[in-house]
């Protein structure tokens, strides 16, 4: 039976990869992925065969994986973070079904940017949150901004993926403008660049102070809810445990 | 320097734990955690010293961790999934700050139930999504249901944690009622019980067919967006890649 593993290898550093992902990558006959991702893991598995495809050729990449699997080879199709969150899992299923290929697909989950960035910043995601990508390549910008507005109205913590790219420089500022209409200006905002990779950097700012100049395609941005605060350099969203405990003590 | 690692050990099975988590657990002088979580990992680290505390004693658990760390010991405070998502990271920071303890805290991220359940179901989280806990112990029920409504209005995929407990049996049905007002009855719903643990089970149903009887405290529930469909037993939320590629071919 032909088999493709869709592997989320986590943020990038090998220490954040789960054992199952490592095992699958070690056992695969061929690793298929976007060039940048191949570069991130090649040092950890130097002996493997790699098939690299450029950015935005996601469908081609999946077809390559399916064609290779049909030869009876075990294929690992890689995504950074988790393969199911804006990753390759969905499109692989679609392509395999479209090709009518008798291929067994298994998704190996990974640590996604939201949780990695949160771990770097402190504990901003301890309450209900939304994950929203600002990439408007495949999603109408109006829908993205509508979701930003509803997330703010629901007082969700927001976790923003792909806040800016080289060519898309304005959606983040549009999102900030909407958030500022609804949320307090002193709402903490955490920006993590290269979360869980070499060159990791974190910045804490506020909704009022934040600007599109501070982010790029390597950033994950977390915007707090109405209870989120910064103390001793950590961004924290309380769940109310301490207050509860103090109530008990009375 | 006293040091506490807050470790998300993932869904439960050792193969989904990241290497850093395993390393920290191996090196810790003492592992502190809720009894059920200790049971999940004890077999993997049988030689360690454990301090167990019962459910709902989160503040006590953190105080224990801080007191032990102040003795100069390295402590691992464990959560299942990711320690920052409804986990112990936030409350530990709060308790350590309240105690004025000079303790270094580091959060080690893990694979959270959302991504594990998604991997089991197919690829339902490939578009913007909300994570909402239905536990009303520390969150007013009105706020939870307001968030459910806004998430539906934004056509987010919903990932529901803690859909039901032994004593809280009605919030899930209330949430379903709201979702049915806004979303189509044939919207796919995936329920994963014991995701990434022994006894893992998955059920695919629809918003119209789903009921509170199908879920318990071990379940994670994913409700699709307007584009989500089920094909060949997999729940998929398309991002639009295939259509895009076909456009190119013309």
Structure description:
- Two copies of one chain form a homodimer.
- Helices cover 33% and strands 25% of the residues of chain A.
- The radius of gyration of chain A is 20 Å and the shape is elongated.
- By secondary structure, chain A is α/β, with parallel strands linked by helices.
- A five-stranded parallel sheet of chain A has the order 3-2-4-1-5, with helices on both faces. Chain A has a five-stranded mixed sheet with strand order 7-8-11-9-10, with helices on both faces.
- Chain A contains eight helices and 13 strands.
Number of strands of chain A: 13
Q: Helices and strands of chain A: which structural class? A: alpha/beta
SSE sequence of chain A, one letter per element: EHEHEHEHEHEEHEHEEEEEH
The two chains with the largest interface, and their residue counts, are:
A-B, 78 and 78 residues
Average pLDDT of chain A works out at 94
Give the strand order, joined by hyphens, for the main sheet of chain A.
Answer: 3-2-4-1-5
How far the N terminus sits from the C terminus of chain A, by CA atoms, comes to 64 Å
Based on the structure, what is the oligomeric state of the protein chains? homodimer
Give the C-alpha Rg of chain A.
20 Å
Q: How many helical stretches of chain A?
A: 8
Low-confidence stretches of chain A: none
**Main beta sheet of chain A: strand number and arrangement?**
5 strands, parallel
Approximately what portion of the residues of chain A adopt beta-strand conformation? 25-35%
Approximate shape of chain A: elongated
State the share of residues found in helices of chain A, binned by percent: 25-40%
């Amino acid at each position: 039976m032909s088999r493709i593993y869709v592997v989320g290898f986590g943020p990038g550093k090998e220490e954040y990869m789960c054992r199952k992902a490592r095992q699958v990558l070690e056992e695969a006959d061929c690793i298929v992925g976007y060039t940048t991702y191949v570069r991130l893991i090649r040092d950890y598995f130097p002996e493997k065969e790699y098939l690299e495809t450029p950015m935005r050729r996601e469908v081609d990449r999946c077809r390559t994986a399916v064609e290779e699997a049909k030869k009876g080879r075990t294929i690992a199709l890689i995504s950074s973070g988790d393969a199911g969150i804006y990753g390759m899992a969905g499109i692989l299923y679609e392509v395999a079904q479209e090709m009518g290929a008798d291929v067994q697909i298994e998704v190996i989950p990974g640590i996604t940017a939201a949780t990695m960035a949160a771990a770097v910043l402190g504990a901003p995601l301890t309450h209900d949150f939304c994950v929203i990508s600002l990439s408007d390549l495949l999603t109408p910008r109006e829908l993205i901004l509508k979701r930003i507005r509803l997330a703010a109205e629901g007082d969700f913590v927001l976790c923003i993926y792909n806040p800016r790219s080289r060519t898309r420089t304005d959606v983040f500022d549009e999102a900030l403008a909407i958030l500022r209409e609804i949320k307090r200006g002193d709402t903490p905002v955490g920006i993590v660049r290269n979360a869980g990779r070499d060159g990791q950097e974190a910045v804490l700012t506020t909704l009022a102070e934040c600007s599109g100049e501070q982010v790029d395609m390597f950033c994950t941005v977390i915007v707090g809810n109405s209870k989120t605060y910064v103390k001793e350099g950590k961004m924290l969203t309380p769940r109310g445990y301490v207050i509860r405990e103090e109530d008990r003590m009375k």
